[in-house]
Write a structure and sequence with these properties.
By secondary structure, this protein is of the alpha+beta class. The chain is about 15% helix and about 50% strand. The chain folds into three domains: about 1-130, Sandwich (Immunoglobulin-like), CATH 2.60.40.10; about 135-220, Immunoglobulin-like; about 220-295, Immunoglobulin-like (Sandwich), CATH 2.60.40.10. The longest helix has about 40 residues, at about 310-350.
């Protein structure tokens, strides 16, 4: 490298600044590139002397805070770059892998050929990295809350992109023309639950943000249905539409008799006199607590062993019934004999 530098200085002092070599810097696929893609900056040149045979020396610069900063150089098989993990130079082409937004800026290529004129010629291009917009929205809201979605793409693309907010793959808001920020607000309803993303579009293409899911917590007033069934069975069904799944409980006369989690709770029982009363259902989750209407159950029944008559009174009642039945059996034949006698006497009188 010492010999090379000495030759460079000697030839430069010898030939001065006579212009002849032309340099053209092109960007592939374009000077507007999408984040994480590969970009190639091709520094092509044309010699002015047919006798020029020495390898050109390529210098690559990037403007940082208004100052030119060297990021790489190459001559023949010799290559040096500032970021070896993402950059490479081959035959005057600077290749940048996995382009980041920080790669945006003005790039300059400088070509130096010691056996041609001039010693140095440069060309520059502005590279703009277009990256995905971001979307900000809450993860969980309740019905009645205010939903605010913000889509941003600040200084991310040139020209400024059109921004759109999508819900379940359907556009619900768009900038009026171009811009770097889009906001959307609404009072939350159950139907607002879904998947949201933001889209930015310009001449460079289209880029979508990450998709975010919005859950809407709610609870509707539960309903209760009392259904008497064949065989003296009572079925009670409590239902509630809610998210997340609610805790359900069935009450009789203010006392819980059944509970569970889900959108439906069933309770069955053999009907007794004590089942008469007022029934209602309660549903609760993170969105609150709701109560169904109260329904009254009346139970009609015959007095039996399940009633509130005690055993002593029931025994007396059965004994009295037995006595009356015995008397009835004794009196019945006598009644038939008397009837026959009266009929006989009546017929005799008619014969006389």
């Amino acid at each position: 490298m010492v010999v090379f530098t000495g030759i460079y200085i000697f030839v430069y002092a010898l030939i001065g600044c006579v212009y002849g070599v032309t340099v053209d810097l092109t960007v592939q696929p374009s000077n507007t590139i999408v984040e994480n893609q590969i970009i190639g900056l091709n520094c092509s040149f044309e010699r002015s002397r047919s006798t020029s045979i020495l390898d050109p020396l390529f210098f690559w610069y990037k403007m940082v805070n208004g100052k030119k900063q060297e990021i790489g150089k190459q001559q023949g098989s010799y290559t040096e770059v500032s970021d070896k993990t993402r950059m490479a130079i081959l035959d005057g082409v600077l290749v940048i892998h996995e382009v980041k937004r920080s790669d945006s800026g003005v790039y300059e290529c400088e070509v130096s050929i010691v056996d041609d004129h001039p010693v140095k010629t440069t060309d520059s291009r502005n590279v703009i990295v277009f990256y995905a917009p971001s979307i900000v929205l809450p993860i969980t809201l309740m019905v009645g809350d205010v939903l605010e979605i913000v889509c941003t793409n600040s200084n991310a693309a040139y020209p400024e992109p059109v921004l759109e907010i999508y819900k379940n793959d359907k556009a619900i808001a768009s900038t009026n023309g171009t811009g770097t920020e889009l906001s959307y607000t609404a009072n939350v309803m159950v139907s607002d639950a879904g998947d949201y993303f933001c889209r930015a579009s310009n001449e460079a293409g289209t880029k979508d943000s990450q998709t975010k899911h919005l859950s809407v917590q709610f609870i509707h007033t539960p309903s209760i249905v009392l259904t008497p069934m064949v065989g003296g069975v009572l079925e009670i069904v409590c239902t509630s539409n809610a998210y997340p799944e609610p805790a359900l409980e069935i009450y009789m006369n203010g006392k819980g008799i059944a509970n569970g989690t889900g959108t439906e709770l069933n309770y069955t029982a053999n009907v007794k006199a004590s089942d008469a009363g007022d029934y209602f259902c309660r549903a609760s989750n993170e969105a609150g607590t709701k109560y169904s209407q109260t329904k009254h159950l009346s139970v009609q029944y015959w007095c039996d062993s399940s009633s509130k008559v005690n055993d002593g009174k029931m025994t007396m009642l059965l004994a009295g019934v037995s006595i009356l039945y015995g008397i009835f059996l004794l009196v019945l034949p006598v009644c038939f004999w008397l009837i026959n006698c009266l009929q006989y006497r009546k017929e005799r009188r008619k014969g006389m």
